[in-house]
Amino acid sequence: MSARLFARIACIVVLGMAFLGVSFQTRAAQATSKGEQLVLDPKIHVALAPGEAKKYTIASTLYLPTQRTDTVIVTYHGSTYGQYYWNFPYKPGTYSFVDAMTRAGYAVLNMDRIGDGASSHPASDLVTVQSDSYTLHQVVQDLRSGVIDGSVFSKVVLAAHSLGGYISWYAAAMYPADFNGVIETGAVHHNSISRDDTAIPLFYPATADPKFASSGLDSGYYTSKPGIRSQMYYHQPFGPKVAALDEQLKQTVVLNELEQGIALATDHTSNMIHVPVLSVLGQFDFFACASDGMNCSSAATIKQAEAPFYAPDACLQTYDLANAGHDINLAPNAEQWYSTATTWIENFVEHHQSGCGIRSQSMPLTQISTSTIPGTPASNCCYDTAIVDDGKYYLADNDRAGIDVIRDGKQSAYQGII
To answer: DSSP E strands: which ranges in 7-70?
Structure first.
């Protein structure tokens, strides 16, 4: 089927989807560096919590390869970024993850997280790890049910970066049936405290920035100060045009969302991910690769550091992008990790590897058996457990006030998640 005919059929399907809570704009099939792709712009209506009205929208762009696929990659950007991080509008053959994945035959839903880009900006105290994860869950359910483009995607891969990666640990644990694989970039459990301390003063309230001065955002929304992104996000050599365009396109982050996300790096929520995981890090990632962080010299050292934070059936694979900083998509050699990602999807998502993703309870949490946690009230609803070096962790409701990550039944490692 030609891309032009595919586009005509898709437009008819889109008209039939309007009443299902997804509004669309369509574009003609557009050229990539190799071939064409169909592009849709669905605005997906979501609630921030179960039982609430779907009064917020997630702005997204759905890129479809010319040949139909049942595998879709959902992108999830980091702080002060948006969709543009995954489809950088400069030299797409070098800097566009979207372009590389559609050329490889995969669909990509490139989205702005809630509170970012063209998505709704709720009051900042409503933008949390739990609302992030629940909105992402609704997006995935729409993809799996055929609401977004009229066809069912049976395989969903999450590609997350930085803060988006931290949030994805919780989202993949809390909604275990959502993803068939997770790609983490720039999201590890051994960040440098000294580098984090250096980065904190480089942000300020968004309304103090000329770009967002008249945005009406409340004081919980922050952004990077002008001209400082190269200190955190890139490693030499990087293109000056890339840096200038990144500054022009920069977005915001919610402060409490960032704090909650970083907190997830200190517990073992990610041990409760039971699908294959690929973790990718730049060799000179500002936040991780330091004397008080981790050894980023090779994929092997990254895997050695990160393996204790993943279950055996996550079948953790790692990749170290040489001479790259935190923003690996903006590195001149980004296409190297794009190639690794397509190979990994083919090997671990399209084809099952023995021992990977075998946990029988990979289903919605309400269907997982109950358990009693020592040191807490009896008859807790326990959704998952992880035994690690410093004890046993439970993903459970130990107080009937919300699902928490609980360590040894003695304390909540991360409270009030949902």
So the answer is: 22-23, 26-31, 36-40, 43-46, 56-65
